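Self-study notes.
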Amino acid sequence: MRIGFIITTLMFISGCSNTPKNTTPKPLTVDAISQWETVGRVGIRTEEDALSGNFNWFQNNATFDLSIVGPFGQGSTLLTQTAPGQVELKYEDNIIQGTSARTLLSDHFGWQFPVDQIAYWIRGLPSPSSPYEVSNGFSSERPEEIIQDGWIVTYKDYSTIDGLELPSKLQASNPPFRVNLIITQWTIK
């Protein structure tokens, strides 16, 4: 009797463990990525200033959370978009709301950081909102350079994440402004 109970219990447990899990299939192309998170280092140069720090960027379609933390945890900036046209900037003891991430960063820090475009450039794609030029590598489909909205985006290195080639090092420049991103971790859905 005891052996029958043990066998029945083991069969029940093994049946539960083989139940397929409901997982979201991974995207097959870079432009099919609907949600992603990156972690890495950022350098931003303006006419009068230069700063560097770590960043964490979570993007889900039209919403995002971008956190930039200065060296040794000093100076934290959080930029959040909860819906199109609803952006919030938090730094020090300030909370400012607006309709454009780019405008908030420009008005409060003097940064020219084209958040909407970089959300595409960070994946190696031109933004669909304006004309662009793309230069691909000699024997590759991945871009080496994108020119768009006065910015030149240069791709220095790529990583393969879930079978997709995604940038791991890029620079976006529109003199005197420059943004360098080194991506140390990608999570895509």
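Second protein, same conventions, sequence then structure:
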Amino acid sequence: MEEKKQPSKEDVRHWLQTQVEGRRPPPDPQQIRRELGWDLVKMERGEMPKR
């Protein structure tokens, strides 16, 4: 008879983390642009007014 192997705590934590991350809505488009530095590129090109 084979024994069922219980997953490690780390495996369970990893699985739970991926489940939680999968349920979050995507970030705001402005936040994505800011994190990618697109606003800085536009400023260098003169496409955006400087604040």
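Instructor comment on the second fold: The chain is about 60% helix and 0% strand.
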